[in-house]
């Protein structure tokens, strides 16, 4: 496994790769930082995959909508988490979805009558490839900007970069009913 860092408008980002696939992307200080890393990681700056991802990130932070499908992603996680992350990848740039909407999609996919929004939140929160697998595009049912492992301030910044209409979205304060 290999890693490198990228300086971004939301802070230092650590990239992890098997050498062929991107396996991790974490914002400095992110909850669950590098939780999926197995064994020793060697620092390496010039892997082709890192160059591709850095170009993608440059484009993203310039306010463009780079194509995610061109990146070879290999997030580590079980079947449930993989299904949730696949749905995250389908959220259009500049838009958002609620945890409840994802829960309904997963319930249908898994042929279940319902799915817990909290279970979805757990899978979203453990996304090992932040930004590229856009977990920042998930909000609470009432428009609350909650549950971003990188920090709410970074979630807001990412949504602003994408030009999301923030009308109706808010940061919950202590005691706010979600």
Automatic annotation (TrEMBL):
<comment type="similarity">
    <text>Belongs to the MGMT family.</text>
</comment>
<dbReference type="GO" id="GO:0005737">
    <property type="term" value="C:cytoplasm"/>
</dbReference>
<keyword id="KW-0808">Transferase</keyword>
<keyword id="KW-0227">DNA damage</keyword>
<comment type="function">
    <text>Involved in the cellular defense against the biological effects of O6-methylguanine (O6-MeG) and O4-methylthymine (O4-MeT) in DNA. Repairs the methylated nucleobase in DNA by stoichiometrically transferring the methyl group to a cysteine residue in the enzyme. This is a suicide reaction: the enzyme is irreversibly inactivated.</text>
</comment>
<feature type="domain" description="Methylated-DNA-[protein]-cysteine S-methyltransferase DNA binding">
    <location>
        <begin position="79"/>
        <end position="164"/>
    </location>
</feature>
<keyword id="KW-0489">Methyltransferase</keyword>
<dbReference type="GO" id="GO:0032259">
    <property type="term" value="P:methylation"/>
</dbReference>
<dbReference type="InterPro" id="IPR023546">
    <property type="entry name" value="MGMT"/>
</dbReference>
<dbReference type="Pfam" id="PF02870">
    <property type="entry name" value="Methyltransf_1N"/>
</dbReference>
<dbReference type="InterPro" id="IPR014048">
    <property type="entry name" value="MethylDNA_cys_MeTrfase_DNA-bd"/>
</dbReference>
<dbReference type="InterPro" id="IPR036631">
    <property type="entry name" value="MGMT_N_sf"/>
</dbReference>
<dbReference type="InterPro" id="IPR036217">
    <property type="entry name" value="MethylDNA_cys_MeTrfase_DNAb"/>
</dbReference>
<dbReference type="InterPro" id="IPR036388">
    <property type="entry name" value="WH-like_DNA-bd_sf"/>
</dbReference>
<keyword id="KW-0234">DNA repair</keyword>
<dbReference type="InterPro" id="IPR001497">
    <property type="entry name" value="MethylDNA_cys_MeTrfase_AS"/>
</dbReference>
<dbReference type="InterPro" id="IPR008332">
    <property type="entry name" value="MethylG_MeTrfase_N"/>
</dbReference>
<feature type="active site" description="Nucleophile; methyl group acceptor">
    <location>
        <position position="135"/>
    </location>
</feature>
<protein>
    <recommendedName>
        <fullName>Methylated-DNA--protein-cysteine methyltransferase</fullName>
        <ecNumber>2.1.1.63</ecNumber>
    </recommendedName>
</protein>
<feature type="domain" description="Methylguanine DNA methyltransferase ribonuclease-like">
    <location>
        <begin position="1"/>
        <end position="74"/>
    </location>
</feature>
<dbReference type="Pfam" id="PF01035">
    <property type="entry name" value="DNA_binding_1"/>
</dbReference>
<dbReference type="GO" id="GO:0006307">
    <property type="term" value="P:DNA alkylation repair"/>
</dbReference>
<dbReference type="GO" id="GO:0003908">
    <property type="term" value="F:methylated-DNA-[protein]-cysteine S-methyltransferase activity"/>
</dbReference>
<keyword id="KW-0963">Cytoplasm</keyword>
